Structures are given as C-alpha cells and as structure tokens.
Amino acid sequence: MPDGPPPRLRPERHYGDRTVNCFAERPGSLWQMVDAAVERRGDGEALVAGEQRWTWRDLGVAAGRLSGGLHDRGIGTGDRVLLLLGNRADFVVASLALARMGAVAVPLSIRSAPPEVDYVAMHCGARLALVEDDLLGHVPASVPALAASALEALDGEPRAPAAVDEEDTAVVLYTSGTTGRPKGAMLAHFNIVHSALHYELAMALGPSDRSAVAVPLSHVTGLVAQLWTMAHVAGTLVLLPAFKAGDYLRLAERERITHTILVPAMYQLCLLQEDPARFDLAAWRIGGFGGAPMAPATIAALAEAVPSLGLVNCYGATETASPATIMPPGHTVRKPASVGVAVACGELMIVDAEARALPADTPGEVWIRGPMVVGGYWADAAATLLAFTDGWWHSGDLGRIDAAGYLHILDRIKDLINRGGYKVFTSEVEAVLLQHPRVVEAAVVGYPCPVLGERVRAFACLRGPVDAGELQAFCAARLADYKVPERWSLGPDPLPRNANGKLLKKALRERHEETRP
User: Which tens digit of pLDDT belongs to each residue from 346-355?
Assistant: First the structure.
C-alpha cells in the first residue's frame, strides 16, 4: 500500500446502523492476512523469540496444527479461549490458530490476579485457557486449562480455515476497569484489519520491517499494532519477554530492528543507559509512542542519539482497536503537544456536556468514529449504550482539535482538577515538569481542599538532587499561579504503572506520604 496510489475509501454500513469510511480493498479476516503473508513471503522470517526463529510458512503450519488440536478438544467457531501467556512464541501461534478456526481470543496480562482471571473467565464464558505453567492456579477450576509446556503436544490435523464474517468477534480485550468491573471490548476482524492497514499506511510499513515487541502482547498495542500489523505486511515480529532498557538496545542492534511502539518512559530509560550511542541502531526508523506526552528534551535527545529514528505519536484505546490518530511523518518535533491527526478512515469530534459538536480549539470530550471502533462490549448492553452514540465512541478524554486538524489531549475527564472554579489540565502541568532536566517522570493529581474543592499535587521520579522549592519555582515561571503544584512527592523511584505502561493515578491519589515545599 505505501508504494502505490492512495488507498480507495468508500462509505459502508456496518453494525446495523453505522455508516463509516472503509478501505475498499482489504482482507476479509485475520487469517486471510496470515495466508497472504505465507503466500507473499513464506520463507521470510516471521517471528524471533529468544533462540527460536520461525518463517511465515512455519507459523502457518504451526497454527494449522494447533487449530486442529484445539478442535479435537472441542473448541469451535465463536468459542472463547483465554490466553494467559507472556511474550512468547506460544502466544503468537495460539493467536493465529484461533483466528484460523474462527474462535475468539481473550488475552489477559500475566500479572492478572486470580480474582481478575476468574471474573473474565466467567464473564466471557471461556471454554479453555492456555496458560503459563506457573499460572495454572490462577484459572478457575471450572475452566479447562493447558500449560504452555503442553501446547507443542496439542498437534492435530489441520482443517479448512473457518468461514467468518468480518464483523464476527476475533478478540475480546478487557479494559482496565478503573471505575468498576472491567468491560470486554469486542474487536472484530473488521476492526483489527482496518487498524493494521492504518499502521501500514501511516508508517510506510512493509515486509522488510522488523518490529520489537517490548509491551505485552496481551495489550491492544502489542496485539494489534505489532502482531497483526506485522502479519498484514508480512514483516518480522521480535519478542522481548519484558522491557529492560539495556536488553532492548542490545536486541535492537542485533536484530536490526526497524520499528517499535513504546511508552515515553521506556525511551527515557533507554537514554539513561550509559552511552546509548555505543549501540548501532541505524536500522531503527520508526519509534511509535503513546499513553503519555513525550518531553521535548527527550525528543531532542533521541534525535541526537538515534538520527535515523522518526518518532510517531499514536493515540487510541482498546475500543478503537489501537490507533485513532497517528502523527504524520516528521511532524513530531513541530507538534510535540499533539497526538496527530485522524487515521485515514477515522473521524474525530469534540463535544460539550450535552453532546453538541464544538468548534476548533474549543476543549471538550473526544468522540471517535470509524471502522476501527468496536461494536460494543461483551454481554454488556447497558455499558455499550452509554459509551456509543451513532457509531461514535465516547473516549472520556478532554481534548481540542486545532485549525489544522491536529488533536491535543488535555486530560482524562476524571483527572481534571477544579481548583476554586479554575480548571487545571494535569497534562499541561506534567508537560512543564518534564521540561526540567532532572525530572524523568511526572504525574499530577488533585487532592481535596475544604475551601477550594481541590488543589494540585505533583509526583516526580528524579535523577539527581532537586527539591520541591526549585520545582515549584520552575512551574511558577511557566504556569498560571493556580496551576502550580502545592504538594510534592519526589524521589528516585519510578512512578507506578500497569502492565501496559500507563500511569496509575488512582494509586498515586491513595498515597499518604507528602513532601511540602
């Protein structure tokens, strides 16, 4: 797609009442993407996992054999299968096998606690779980479980790939559940295929690309932006069991990595390695990032350390099957505060509290529509009704769209601080803190005040000595007085994040240790 004429788009009717722009030419299912990769580049390297190396033909055969074995155990089209597996070859093969047979993958973080696994297993009606050996005890007794070490023996005779409709659910990904029980977003073949095409188009990806997966494959980024996108372009997936900056840089050099998607803190950790320039990273051309803003100082430092690297901000969610916006190539330095423009088939709208569309540069809630937006939540009609309007997904993010069409995320609605009637966007304060040379990470939350309602508190991970007074003065020179943090928690320890690298502001609000300026 990147080398030819622009892809043809056309409006189509989906999910009964949605009219969305779609790629006119597209694969009809996830397995069709795998089949095409085998046909296009069968002997090309598809997967690197430690000492294991697989071609696309190898993966196609392995997925066929595993799908046959799963069928022999009674798994069929539409059945849900839990994947409680880390970043290993088994996760990739199982994902492909389930797509081949039209079953539904339900990936879970290997850091999930037993009650979380139990809830998801019961809620989605899981028929089987494929599990890390040491996590078998996390699966409820009512769900049959197979250990990762036993999957190789699950070798059956391949059957013909299942016939699926592109609106059939391929994956159910459960959201983090920060405001209650997690919801299972239903990612259809249709959604994931469009996301893969969006990434291919925006990042000019092709069969020569080698993508390092340093985020969990169980998350929408690792699963869609990397696993299924590399399947679509017949590229190479290179797995890291877990992110460690030194390990990542060594692997990027050894495997001639061209592409990855990380959270900004991971890039910062790479820069903190002793002399990162000693690694030969000349092949690395695309560095996607998301989940948080990247400090201008980090952008500049990466440009110096890895001149070949083009940073690309990506914004999306589980409900948008990964990307809703992608920064155009070369625009990150010029627009560091933006998350980019809508993907080719996507639409953005900013609305007020009454769901009325707002003009350019006016803050409001970000609504998103397009073929990548999921049809709803598994077995939760009430949550689906609340979160979707005429195909628009209500993101819960506060943002604005500038006159040139670039989206700027200001805050989560629930994170907005109301200090005596003045609105404080926490992302704005965090961006200022990240300009300080000794601040590695920063997070801002509100805390209760009987007079003003809320006041501003900052948490920061530091390199080297700096006190709260210095940081307060730094902010006061760059922000209105009501935005300057009044309470501080500072130290050398990283801020708490979930398995996907996102800051856990709820955990920060619950901390009682305070350092006053």
Answer: 999 999 999 9
**Cα dihedral across residues 393, 396, 402, 403: positive or negative:** positive
d(CA 464, CA 409): 30
Residue 484 CA: distances (Å) to CA of 73, 375, 425, 438, 487: 60, 41, 11, 18, 9
Rounded to 5 degrees, φ, ψ at 40 are: -80, -35
Instruction: Report how far apart, in Å, the C-alpha atoms of 363 and of each of 335, 337, 360, 371 are.
Output: 18, 15, 9, 25
Residue 93 tokens, joined: 């093969």
| Distance (Å, whole) CA 451 – CA 460 | 26
8 Å CB contact between 251 and 242:
no
DSSP-derived 3-state class of residue 286: strand
d(CA 84, CA 64): 21
What's the pTM value of the predicted model, to 2 decimals?
Answer: 0.89
The pLDDT tens digits of the residues spanning 406-443 come to 999 998 888 889 898 888 989 889 989 999 999 989 99
Comparing CA positions, the residue from 275, 257, 273, 266 lying closest to residue 294 is 266
The label of the residue with tokens 């990595």 reads: 257
Please give the Cα distance from 348 to 371 (Å, whole number).
13
Query: Which residues have CB under 8 Å from 403's CB, separation 6+?
Result: 360, 361
Q: How far is it, in rounded angstroms, from Cα 101 to Cα 128?
A: 14
Amino acid at residue number 491: G
Query: Which residue in this structure is represented by tokens 């030194």?
Result: 246
Q: Which two tokens stand for residue 11?
A: 């409006």
- State the Cα–Cα distance between residues 350 and 397, nearest whole angstrom: 10
Hunting for tokens 């993508």 — which residue is that? 211
21's enclosing H/E stretch is strand 18-23
Q: Torsions phi, psi of 287, nearest 5?
A: -120, 95
Cα dihedral angle (337, 339, 344, 349), rounded to 10 degrees?
-90
Q: What angle do CA 432, 325, 56 make, to 5 degrees?
A: 120
Bridge-based pairing of strands 347-351 and 364-369 is antiparallel
pLDDT exceeds 90 at position 179: no
Task: Provide the 3-class DSSP secondary structure of residue 79.
Answer: coil
Strand partners, 259: 211, 286
Residue 112 to residue 218: CA distance in whole angstroms: 11
Task: Please state, in angstroms and rounded to a whole number, the distance separating the CA atoms of residues 220 and 262.
Answer: 12
Residue 81 has pLDDT above 50, yes or no: yes
